Amino acid sequence: MDFRQIRYFVAVAEEENIGRAAKRLNISQPPLTRQIKQIEDELGIELFVRTPRGMELTPVGRLFLDEAKNIQLLFEQATERTLQAAQGKLGRLDVAIFGSGILDAIPKILLSFKETFPDVKVVLHQLGKSEQIEALRQRRINVGFNRLLAPLPDITSETVINEKLLLAVNEKNPLSRQADIAFAEIADHPLILFPSTGRPNFIDKVIAICNERGFYPRISQEVGDAVSGVALVAGGFGICLVPTSLTALTLPGVRFLPIRDAEPHWTVDLSCIYRADDHSPILTAFLKTVRAFREASPANA
């Protein structure tokens, strides 16, 4: 017995008449009659009682009708879920996150995606840059978010936002009394850098900017992430250059100062990365959300 025969049986059972069922199914009566007889022969039971008025279900036929409708419903659900999966509306998305992006852009992107595709299960993984790349290649994640990524032939990188740099200072530091700072003033203070792994990284960016201005920074600490860096600022261990997204992090005793003489290229990117050969519907749907966020972000204006 196949699904077509189940559909024929349900039509006859609901219409209680071969002629009306045939018209509903857009087929002629003789083949429909043969199909119903074939179902009964295969089951070895009588599903209908033939009457002058048409077809009446036997008690076992009524039971079979209930089960046949359940099968139709399951098939419809399976079809719908398959179509949703093909459109990226159903399934699982594994996302790797790291650093200060989790304080601003990434949560907004994920929330927008979840609002549009509520049936997609989003699973987050805390992974550093090299770990994200390895996880992508091993197909353990679909997409990652990170900064300052070197080009790779098998990994595609898309910039989400470019953030300006601010200086995090302790409120007891004399610099905190200023509305903004000149970059050269950084040279006179112990500088906290992050992250300590995953080169090239933000440390390389900061040192390159310092070199542009003719000095090498007085490095006091190198820490694993931006949050740790700002925490050390709060503890009085030094000052720290940070992306703008760090202003979402409120720690007692920390101020964020703009750099008055910053160059236009003194920004740090947040990018999403994914396998170049991944054309899955769910990733395609997620990338549309990322690109919509990028277009609407004031940071990219």
Tally of DSSP β-strands: 11
CATH H-level homologous superfamily name of the largest domain: Periplasmic binding protein-like II
**Number of discrete domains:** 3
End-to-end distance: 62 Å
Count of discrete alpha- or pi-helical segments spanning 4 or more residues: 9
Helix content: 40-55%
Q: What's the story with the biggest beta sheet?
A: 7 strands, mixed
CATH class of the largest domain: Alpha Beta
How is the CATH topology of the largest domain named? Answer: D-Maltodextrin-Binding Protein, domain 2
CATH architecture term of the largest domain: 3-Layer(aba) Sandwich
Order of helices and strands: HHHEEHEHEHEEEHEHEEEH
- Strand content is 15-25%
**Rounded radius of gyration (Å):** 32 Å
The coarse silhouette is rod-shaped
Note poorly predicted spans.
none
Helix/strand-derived class? alpha/beta
Task: Provide tags for this entry.
301 residues; 11 strands; 9 helices; 3 domains; D-Maltodextrin-Binding Protein, domain 2; Arc Repressor Mutant, subunit A; alpha/beta; seven-stranded mixed β-sheet
